[in-house]
Every structure is written in C-alpha cells, then in structure tokens.
Design brief:
Helix content is about 70%, strand content about 0%. With about 200 residues, the protein is an all-alpha fold. α3 crosses α9 (about 135-155). The longest helix has 23 residues, at about 135-155.
Length: about 200
Amino acid sequence: MSRRLLTAISSLKRTPRSGWLTHGVSLQDVESVADHTFSTCALSLILTDFELKRGVHVNVERVLRMATLHDLAEAFTFDISKAYLAYLGKRGEVIKDEIEASAWKHLVKGIKSPQMSNNYLRMHREYLENKTIEAKIVHAADSLDILLQIVDLRRRGNQQSCLKNLWKATIKRLRASAIPSVSTVLKMIEALDNMNE
C-alpha cells in the first residue's frame, strides 16, 4: 500500500467541490469531494441494482471500485471546475484529463504491487473513456448527485439563479443517457425538488 494513496483518501474529506463556489454557493455550504464520492457510490449501487433487475449484466464490483476512486486524483489537483475550464476553450477538458492522469500516476507510484497499481490506472482510464456499462453508470451517478445536492441546497434556502442553469444542463445530459434506470432515479429526484416549491 502507498502512504500517498492513504493520505489522498483522507484529504478528500477537506477538499471542497469548487464548482459550487462558481455557482454562488458559500464555502460553508459546499460539500467535500469525499461527501460527493459517498453519494456517487450509493447512487451507482442503486442504478446497478435497477439494471441487474432488468437483466442487464453489470459487474457490481467494478462499478463500486470506479465510483469510489473516480475523483481520488482531486486530492492533488483540487476540484477543477468546468467554469474554470471554460476560460481555456476546447482544450480545457483535455488539460484537465492530462493533469488528472499525471496525478493518478503520482498516486499509484508508491504501491508496491504493480498489478494493483495497474488495476487502479486501468479503472481510471475506463472511467474517463466512458464506454463500458460500468463507467456509464458511474458517470450518470456523478450527475445525479449534482441534482441531489441542488435539492439539498434549495431546501436550505439557496435559490441562486445559477443553480437553475446547472439543474437544466444536468437534466439534459441525464436524459440523453442510454441507461434506462437513470430516468427512473431522475424522476424521483425531480419529485424531491418539486416538494421544495
């Protein structure tokens, strides 16, 4: 095991999700990356269970591993918000991927087992490529968590107009998902939000 990896896990509890700051949420109301990771894991598990019930073959272990590790590099890179990337134009996402890939290599460097470090790197690459059912589930869960967080922020009185734009953009992205169970969970979250009105 790598000390670097253990320290990264711990530091995510103190790493804020900076995208919320760019949407006008006060720092005291911003969730940590670890908070988001837990929620993404739980939502990934729910989506996986729905898909398994439909008879779709999904590797539950891979989903949960990917969800658990998907933002681990942010212990070193911080949470690079899409709003920051917008200033870089089309290259913004590419630069973010390069920075996070470099952080991942740094994370696994101290792991004494080459098989373990290669598995973690492969898992991260699979998540970025977003081609497998497992990666698609984790990406969808990641977006569903944004909506859940907006519902929570609205319940606590945060009615920033920027959140409405983020809500609409996230719903649009989720409605394009090829995973049927995403629409089921999305309807549940929309119902929760309607209770705030």
